[in-house]
Amino acid sequence: MKFYRFVPDSDLYDSLLFVDNVWQISENFVDGKRLGDSWMPPGIEDYIVGQKGEFPSLDRIMPVVSKKAMKVLRSLMNKSVEILPLNSDYWVLNILDVLNCLELDKSKITRNPVTQRVSSIQKYVLHLDKIADKHIFKITETKGLEVIISDNFREIVEKNNLNGLSFSEVIFG
Fold it and tell me: Which of 39, 48, 149, 153 is 20 to 30 Å apart from 81, CA to CA?
């Protein structure tokens, strides 16, 4: 079983930028709570780097997907995400599955010296029974830092030539 970080390739593909410094909107995406009718799409603009991709970078915990990617991946994401309109071309994914699946005592982690919160994970030891049928989720300890996708998610992206993601494999201990 392999898992990867959802990492838009902002070196090769265009990104999106918040207009008017509304970056703090991402705070609403940390805990996996539905936004529903309170969602108001923020102003965004294109940041042209090279080519348009299906997963433009906006914020690390606010995955953005194109209409094409949404059509291909929608059934795989199922109840794990809330799909919110961003503009006429893109959707933002509010990841609802924030899972308490990390075995802290067996994983290799780094903690912030001030807050003692997990700031990074070098080796993951996960309760596989809690993630067996999950294709996109966040881990409780790093919910504000990363989104995790399954190998099946990666395979579907590659099979359908959806460009713009760089797959960073999660290292299991």
Answer: 48
